[in-house]
Specification:
Blueprint: H1 20-29, H2 32-65, H3 71-117, H4 120-125, H5 128-169, H6 171-178, H7 180-218, H8 220-225, H9 229-281, H10 287-328, E1 350-357, E2 366-373, E3 378-383, H11 389-396, E4 404-409, E5 412-413, H12 419-425, E6 426-429, H13 440-444, H14 453-462, H15 466-471, H16 489-503, E7 507-511, H17 519-532, E8 537-541, H18 545-548, E9 553-558, E10 561-566, H19 568-574, H20 576-589
Parallel strand pairs: 3-8, 3-9, 6-7, 7-8
Antiparallel strand pairs: 1-2, 1-4, 4-5, 9-10
Bound molecules: adenosine-5'-triphosphate (ATP) and magnesium ion.
């Protein structure tokens, strides 16, 4: 099943000079309704909460001391206020969490969308696995801050209201009661400041553990074949030890600071009782007022502490946002030009006109590479390892762009046509086929998910894969283990060939795609390729003489240039290099 998530409604701001939170703003703004609802509701809830101590004060004074008003009125009023505060609190949370997780989903799909858009050159540079896992925790910290920060600010603003109420009851006592608040704020900040580095260390060490576990699971075959299990266990134990050190340190610091944070408000209560008590004894203050003050003080405690937390969360969110922007600000090198058109009715001519190419700034891999393949031709590309054969295939599908010269399909410059149409018309089978952990059938139908079972089977037959697939426990419905490890190398390659054949590209490039398949099966594959598609252009990159001999024409590549071009027999007679390369591959085959 394909997911139908509509995708993010907004993109981050492209202006890299803006502060980080302004760049995120469009995404939050796209959820403004639920966001504003949550803020308004939370404000409402807090107002009701702040009104309660005031009611309590007047109830004690008017009903209990002066017997001037009925007590049950006040009780009912307090109950109503409590219910209203509760209901709006519940609703506010619901809206807030909805906003938070929608923002998170948007950020996540923005990043993944962007990652799929980026070119091969980006993946050559970065470790994609780390990128993705890092993006996960960074998204979380940005999401938390951008939705909870406004909420905490609302709560703090309620502090002003509470202070206002206290001022109306008794200005002097209000100031005395508030004395501890700045201390609480400072202590909160100090505690977070010592905790912050340790929480970073914890995160980093947890990531180390995750990397080791990940490598051991993915590389389990290497670990076991070198009998390094014990070394790996020790490596993990070391990493786990380091994590636990960080957690213990964290707990120690919390243990030292928490009593202060928890008990400072008691100091405030004591001050209120001392000064307020004297005032009550002297008849300047009611008992209800002291109770109201107590309630306000307890109410204020949380926002003041959270304010300190907000500062730390802000720093963390900023760092996370910058790492997210690092990905989102990356532009792909290979992009469709505006007005790119679709390639249609491709006959299969493939031309490289004096192409030069380098991966990075340093070595030129292809130099003035000039090759013309006519529609329907079968060409073998031969050369020493590292001579640039796979690079030729990558330029034909525009995984990279040539730095000089042109690559043309049926006369159309590959830079002028849409990438999707180019890649459906030029099919490449790589030597290391990546299979997904789904059924064989879904793997073969990857490029054409709508293909019928008959089409899938025909492609499998052409790739000489039908027989072994039929022998699998559930045939075409057998689910392949991760990365195809439950199949042999040659079986994987045949499924990969079937996958490309199903798309039926007029130009087919087989890059060492049959290297693990035995010679007899390989020749049946090439026979079926020839009978199935007479009009197909095929470029075969191969080392084996048996494979090369199937081609009508052989091209020899050396140092990024075409150095010989002709039939197998011609080259054997004229090219010393060709003879040398073949001699080498013969050695390997024996
Ligand atoms: N993604 C890359 N980034 C940088 N350099 C690369 C990259 N891919 C290949 N190279 C370099 O380009 C050169 C040509 O590589 P290429 O893969 O085209 O060789 P090849 O002829 O296919 O070799 P083989 O027969 O071993 O598959 C090599 O020197 C290689 O180191
Ligand atoms: Mg190669």
């Amino acid at each position: 099943m394909r997911s139908t998530y509509p995708g993010p409604r907004a993109y981050i701001s492209r202006d890299t000079n803006l502060p980080w939170w302004k760049r995120i703003l469009p995404i939050i703004a796209s959820h403004r309704l639920s966001f504003i609802a949550s803020i308004v509701l939370s404000f409402t809830s807090l107002i009701f909460q702040t009104l309660v101590p005031n009611l309590l004060n007047s109830a004690i004074t008017n009903s209990l001391e002066k017997h001037a008003a009925a007590l049950h009125h006040a009780v009912i009023e307090i109950l109503i206020f409590a219910v209203l505060a509760g209901v709006s609190g519940i609703l506010s949370r619901q809206y807030l969490f909805r906003t938070a997780y929608e923002v998170e989903a948007d950020l996540r799909s923005l990043i993944y969308e962007h990652l799929t858009w980026l070119s091969f050159s980006f993946y050559d540079r970065v470790q994609s696995g780390q990128l993705i896992s890092r993006a996960n925790s960074d998204i979380r910290s940005v999401q938390m801050y951008s939705t909870f920060a406004p909420l905490i600010l609302v709560q703090t603003s309620i502090g002003v209201l509470a202070f206002g109420f206290m001022l109306t009851i008794d200005p002097l006592l209000a100031c005395i009661a508030m004395v501890v608040m700045p201390i609480l704020y400072v202590v909160g900040i100090k505690m977070r400041r010592v905790l912050f580095p340790i929480s970073w260390i914890t995160q980093a060490r947890l990531a180390d553990v995750a990397t080791i576990v990940d490598e051991n699971v993915n590389g389990v075959r290497v670990v076991k074949s070198f009998a390094q299990e014990e070394a790996e266990i020790n490596r993990l134990a070391d990493a786990a030890e380091r994590v636990s050190w960080a957690y213990v340190k964290d707990a120690q610091i919390r243990g030292q600071w928490s009593p202060w944070v928890q008990n400072l408000p008691q100091l405030g209560l004591a001050l209120v009782l001392a000064f307020g008590g004297v005032m009550v004894i002297n008849g300047h203050l009611s008992i209800g007022a002291i109770l109201a003050f107590n309630a306000y003080l307890l109410m204020l405690q949380a926002p003041f502490m959270m304010l300190g937390q907000l500062v730390m969360m802000g720093q963390r969110a900023k760092a996370s946002a910058e790492r997210i922007f690092e990905i989102l600000d990356e532009n792909p090198d290979v992009v469709e030009r505006p007005g790119a058109y679709d390639l249609t009715n491709v006959k299969g001519a493939l031309d490289f006109d004096h192409v030069s190419f380098r991966y990075g700034p340093d070595v030129e891999i292809l130099k003035d590479f000039d090759l013309h393949v006519a529609a329907g031709e079968i060409v073998a590309l031969v050369g020493r390892t590292g001579s640039g054969k796979s690079t030729v295939a990558r330029l034909a599908t525009r995984f990279y762009d040539a730095s000089e010269g042109r690559v043309r399909v049926d006369g159309h410059n590959v830079r002028d046509v849409s990438l999707a149409s180019l890649r459906t018309n030029v099919g490449v089978v790589l030597d290391e086929p990546f299979l997904f952990s789904v059924s064989v059938r879904e793997n073969i139908a990857y490029g054409v998910p709508t293909a019928s079972f008959e089409e899938v089977e025909a492609a499998a037959r052409a790739a000489a894969a039908h027989d072994f697939i039929s022998d699998l426990p559930q045939g075409y419905d057998t689910v392949i283990g991760e990365r195809g490890y439950t199949l042999s190398g040659g079986q994987r390659q045949r499924i990969a060939i079937a996958r490309t054949l199903l798309v039926n590209p007029p130009i087919l490039i087989l890059d060492d795609a049959t290297s693990a398949i035995d010679v007899h099966v390989e020749s049946t594959i090439y026979q079926s390729l020839a009978t199935l598609m007479t009009s197909r252009t095929t470029v075969v990159i191969a080392h084996r003489i048996s494979t090369i001999a199937l081609a009508q024409r052989v091209i020899v590549l050396e140092n990024g240039r075409v150095v010989a071009d002709g039939t197998h027999d011609q080259l054997l007679a004229t090219s010393a290099l060709y003879a040398e390369i073949l001699a080498q591959t013969m050695d390997e085959e024996v």
